[in-house]
Amino acid sequence: MTQVTDTEATLPTRAELVAGLVSAMANPPRSPILRSPADDGIAFSDVFFPAMDGVTIEGWFIPADSDRLIIANHPIWANRYGFPGHLKPYSDAWEVSGNNIEVNFMPDYKHLHEAGYNILAYDLRNFGQSAAGSGGAIGNGIREYRDVIGSLRYVRSHPGLKNMKIGLLSRCCGMNATMVGMSKHPEEFEDVRAIVAPQPISLSAFYRTILGHMGMPDALPEVADALRRATSMELKDMDMPQYAMAVDIPTLLLQVRDDTLTTPDDVQAIFDAMPTDRKDLIWVEGTNRRFDGYNYLPENPQPMLDWFKRFVA
Predict the structure, then answer these.
(1) Counting beta carbons within 10 angstroms of the beta carbon of residue 299, is it exposed (0 to 12), middle (13 to 18) or buried (19 or more)?
(2) N or C end: fewer C-beta atoms under 10 angstroms in the chain?
(3) How far is CA 207 from the centre of its chain?
């Protein structure tokens, strides 16, 4: 009779590994907002507004003496501040990939504010201080697009903001949501002048890459089935090139080329699908940590500032 050791008995099964992968992206824990613009001496106010479907979205408004406004959102796991990946338990899921570092968006807001932009930064549904929505499941953009449209409607309905020139700083899931929104409701984006978009991602590219690292390259159908059962959403609907075909305004993408959590082919396909000829793609070199891509613009703001100056100012 084969004897099972204690170590073997505690190893997760294939089904448990698949369920864990799905849970990590579809039902991640909320992370705290650890910083605010006040840390840099920047005045701001707390705001809230309804998403397109009525979910309450919480955010900050940072005023400036201009007619230019940047609306900013964030990746999965994060919030308007960033992500406390340097602290447990938030670092636990990211240690294996080396992404157990802090993501801090405060410098983004400081750079934009100093350049004369008003800023609206908000938490997507199910993150930060925004309300739960869509059954509490994360849709990698296919539900969160309602929050992007809600932010635009809030600006247009606000007497002090409705005449602003608008640019979007849409990060990761936030850019996914922006592209989905543009695909479903292009009329809502007619007055958006430009987008800066760090690291949009197709969820199948993420899962396929991680499964390869785990020695389970054939498990993507199992992940798709588990995702469907957990969220009532389809993995194929979370692939972004199909929505990028609606992006017809000036867009700057950036991506860590050697990102261990995805492949460069995915972002290249998103970029290639965009019909606008006013687009650019920055490859972040010298690292394989995805989170370094989120910290790239806070540390190297000039490409963002130049893009917005070109198209929004």
Answers:
(1) exposed
(2) N
(3) 16
Tokens of 237: 């609907």
Sign of CA dihedral 302, 308, 311, 313: negative
CA atoms of 4 and 134, how far apart (whole Å): 43
Report the run of H or E that residue 192 belongs to, with start and end. strand 192-198
Element (H, E) at 180: helix 173-184
Residues 6+ apart with CB under 8 A from 9: none
Asked if 180 and 270 count as a contact pair (C-beta separation under 8 A), the reply is no
| Average pLDDT estimate for 113-135 | 97
- Please report, to the nearest 10 degrees, the dihedral formed by the alpha carbons of residues 18, 138, 238, 172 taken in order: -110
Write the single-letter amino acid at 276: T
Please give the Cα distance from 144 to 173 (Å, whole number).
8
CB 294 within 8 A of CB 306: no
Find the range with the poorest average confidence among 3-12, 82-91, 185-194.
Answer: 3-12
What's the Cα-to-Cα distance from 77 to each of 72, 158, 180, 202, 249, rounded to whole Å?
15, 29, 19, 16, 28
Give tens-digit pLDDT for 200-209. Answer: 999 999 999 9
**238 Cβ contact list (under 8 Å, min separation 6):** 139, 140, 141, 142, 176, 202, 203, 204
